[in-house]
Every structure is written in C-alpha cells, then in structure tokens.
Amino acid sequence: MNLLDPHGRRINYLRLSVTDRCNLRCSYCRPPGMDPEPSSGARLSDDELLFLARAAVGIGIEKIRITGGEPLLRNGIARLLSRLRMLPGLKKLVLTTNGLLLAEMAGDLRRAGVESLNVSLDSLVPDRFVRITGSRLQPVLEGIEKALEQGFPSVKINVVVMRGVNDDEVVRFAALTIGRPLTVRFIEPMPLSGKDCGPGLTVPGEEILRRVRERYPLTPRERESLGGPARYYRMEGASGTIGVITPVSCHFCGDCNRIRVTCEGFAKGCLFSARDVDLKPYLAGRDAEGLMDTLRSVVGGKPTGHRFLREGRRGVSVDMSRVGG
Length: 325
Ligand code: SAM
Known about the structure:
The chain is of the alpha/beta class. The protein has one domain (about 15-325): Aldolase class I (TIM Barrel, Alpha-Beta Barrel), CATH 3.20.20.70. The chain has helices spanning about 45-60, 75-85, 100-110, 125-135, 140-150, 170-175, 205-215, 280-285, 290-300, 310, 320-325; strands at about 15, 65, 90-95, 115-120, 155-160, 180-185, 220, 230-235, 240-245, 260, 265-270, 275-280. It has a twelve-stranded mixed beta sheet. Helix 1 (about 45-60) packs across helix 9. The structure holds S-adenosylmethionine. S-adenosylmethionine (SAM) binds near residues 189, 320 and 324.
C-alpha cells in the first residue's frame, strides 16, 4: 500500500518515541540544568504503543524506529519490541540508543527481533565523551561490540560533528569501518533553540567527506531501501561504510518518508512542525478507524520542508528527548 503525502512523497517510516527519560545530557540535545527532568505519567502504555503501531502499519507504514529519550530505559522494552515485531505487515523494526545499557541488553534486543541498531557516539576520546554527554565512553564501546557478538550484522554509529568540539575525530571515526561491519554516519548538528548547538558548530557534510577523502578514496553507495536521509560511501578496502546526514547544509526534505509520534502520543508530520496532533483520544477509545484517519491527516499536513528553510538558522524549539530525534 502506498501512503503518499500531498507533495508526492511516499511515507513508510514511523519514528516512535517510547520514553522522554535519558541517562545522558548531551550538550546539543538536553544540556545540564536546562530542562527539568521530564515528569511523565502520560507516556503511552505498551498496549497503546502496539495499537498505534498496528494502525500505522494499516495505513502503509513499513518501518518503525524505536527512539526516545533513551529507549533502553523503558521498563519491559524487550517484550514491547517482540510484540511489535509480530505485527503483520511491519517490514523493519529498528532502534536508536545511546549504547550505555547495550552490553547487557543486546542479546534481548536481538531475540526480540530488532533488525538493526543505531548507536549515538560523538567522541572516541574518553574525557571528551564525558564533556559532551556527562557519562563514560567505555560502556558504549562495549555495547557496540556486544551487539556485533549477538548477531547484529552491522551497527550504525551516529556522530554529531561539532566544529572545535569533535571534528578532529572525523578520520578516526571513519577508520572504524575498515575492519568492522560498522556504518559511521556524520550528522550536522541542528540548531535547536536553547541548546548548545548554534550554526557556528556546523561542519558541512561536504567538508567532512573532503577530510575523509584526503586519507581514503571513497566510492558512493546505493541508498538503502526504507532508508533515511543519509548518503553513503565506502572507503577503499573497508568492510563498513560511512555516511553523511546534512539537515543544515543540504536539506533532504524532498526525500522525507517519515512521521513521528512522541512518547506522550502526539504525532508530528515534521520534526520541526509546530502542530502536534493528539492521538490519545483514539488510543484511549481503541478507535482504530479514527486513529488511521488521524494519522493520514498528519501525513496530509506534512510541510514541503522544515523550518530552517523559512526561518534561517536561528534555531527552532524542539524537545528532542520527547520527539526522539
Ligand atoms: N537516546 C537515543 C540516542 O542517544 O541515540 C535516542 C534519542 S536521541 C534524541 C536521537 C538522536 O538525536 C541522537 O543520534 C542524537 O545525536 C540526535 N540529536 C539530538 N539533538 C540533536 C541536534 N541538535 N542535532 C542533530 N542531532 C541531534
């Protein structure tokens, strides 16, 4: 079934946030002292998340990414994932994590049927990792190893590249793909107002690729089916790939294939859309038809492009921990 938005884009991807709690305080996402620890008695229950996912698949969603906050902090996450995995029609179930709890949970995630993992990792230098995130690097590295050991064929590492903070590590990160089945994706920081991520931090994707190319020849790769906005390359002789995600320097909205739902049940047609659509009444009333119509209307209301395009780079207000990146 093809679910098209009014701009002709095929929408088949749902990013579903399952918690707003996080065990990191990344400077560009939720810096220390800025936001109160979110209080949320309003997070969707497992049954509500399943009902929602079933409706989403019913209108044409084929891939669901579980995100947060930190999804591995949600109680019973492995069981929720295995229930989601059983939804008929769902082609891909994937998860994004900061990796802190991954070493102990990788086996459960694999057995639950999660197909691939994205791990956020912004520095390979222990002190620097602490400065950026407020936590230790070693558990994340162990988590990535454990995920590979547990049979995940590959792990994607997401690096938010910030000028003067970690951009000197680009080549070192890229080199991780030489002997390991890793995909390292370099992401331009999006200017979110109130967060430590102004436009001065952006290292454009083209500059990142140029720096890697100075060391290693790069060959462009095909985009993945059901993939996101990354452009991929392989370094000569490498087992893994590198990619760039360029929300700031090179908008990819023309290829957008996604909608989002926050952990409290608000749907968003765009990460930056001001209009959140409350799905809870349909979830509380177990109104599948109403829910599917409402999700279709969210797809129908998707803007052509995100607000950086219209508002420049002043910074847009988004609570990433609720929405899930
Ligand atoms: N806790 C999980 C994690 O760390 O991957 C999932 C949630 S986190 C909000 C999802 C992604 O959003 C992470 O890869 C993070 O780096 C990214 N993110 C958060 N704020 C960002 C920003 N200002 N610009 C670019 N990416 C951002």
